[in-house]
Fold this protein.
Amino acid sequence: MKLIVPEFISSIKPYSPGKPIEELEREYGIEDSIKLASNENPLGTSPRAVAAISKALGQLNRYPEGSGYYLTQKLSGRLGVKPENIVLGNGSDEVIGMLTRAFITPGDEAIMPFPSFLMYEIMVRASGGIAVTAPLTASLFPDLNLIKEKITERTRLIFLTHPNNPTGTAIAADDFKRFFKAVPPDIIVVVDEAYIEFVRDKDVLNSVDFVKSGGMVVTLRTFSKVYGLAGLRIGYGVMHEQIAEVLHRIRQPFNANSLAQVAAIAALDDDEFLKETLALIHSGIKYLYNEIERIGLKFFPTQTNFLLIDMAMDADEVFECMLRKGVIVRSMTSYGYPEYIRVNAGLAEENERFVRALEDVIMEMGR
Ligand SMILES: Cc1ncc(COP(=O)(O)O)c(C=O)c1O
């Protein structure tokens, strides 16, 4: 076989997701492990969403409603934008891919903070584009001034993650306003708000406001995190209708599956599940702050459901040792932090188990 692969594809390093529980148990022969590695909702899925899914199971022989009419209507009412401003995706990942396919041609540039969500770089490079990275500030915020300096004639997209994954830092509304004014009007600014529901600080950016005032901004949101629907794959982008019109040209006709659509509609109405999730996550993060401080490790304050911890030792080794204790965390080596791990808040007993395992690992590694 002679497989001809473009160099810009063969040079891509595949995305490495959090290790699934099933894989860990199969490989290590352990049971009862926990996963705190992919920022998922530890409470499960909204009961209203589960009921809606059960009801829709009898219709799986039919194609989904291709325009996502009812979910789009519901989101439009919630967000105060027109249905024409919304594009659904098979996870917000897919909307990132639609944006790069539509707007990046070989040699075009997209600027992104580093570290941030690794899929931007993969998608940009898959279109033959150049991923221009801008290191975070010393306090681990996206460096908006540096990003501005990196804009060239070839810049088509700018990605911002708000709050940022893996640092948990959120962009202040005023900082974004100043930044956005300085961005040339033909560049699309993509603000990925996958964790926006967890934010506790006031005065942070809500990028949908910039879509409403007609800016070249795309807000990305997902049902994978606070709504507990990661396995169904449903997310969306909010954007100027002219941008949406372009994405609809290249979108697969049934990209948002039928169970995901009904589940998302029901989850949006499940205020109780949302409240319970936020209470659990916020108390979990507080518990983790206290425990990590007691252990004597450095951590970075977060606006999300996850926490970045400086282990001051090899993160891949910590990851491996934690696995053997049945606790899956994420090594941050591929994010440029070879001594940091990222862990998301789980159920109270999962957080306690994580802390116990971490203390054991620190002892074993002789710190
Ligand atoms: C910042 C960020 N954006 C997007 C995603 C992907 O979300 P989805 O499950 O909607 O594709 C993630 C998932 O971890 C994320 O951390």
